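Exam revision sheet. Question 4 asks you to relate a sequence to its structure. Input first:
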Amino acid sequence: NNQLLRALQESAASELAARMTAMNNASDNASDLVKTLTLSYNKARQAAITQEILEVVGGAEALG
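Answer key, structure tokens:
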């Protein structure tokens, strides 16, 4: 009886440990994705700013 209870407890603990590992991995992957998307956003934003500056400079040169 005691051995059966112990086996059930170990099984439950093992399942919870596996779930925690999976959730930690998912959390790490989400953090990596946020970093990647933030970098992409900032690069696109910087490219847009650079383009606007070039247009302003080009317009100023055209005026004189």
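Marking note for examiners. The helical segments are 2-63.
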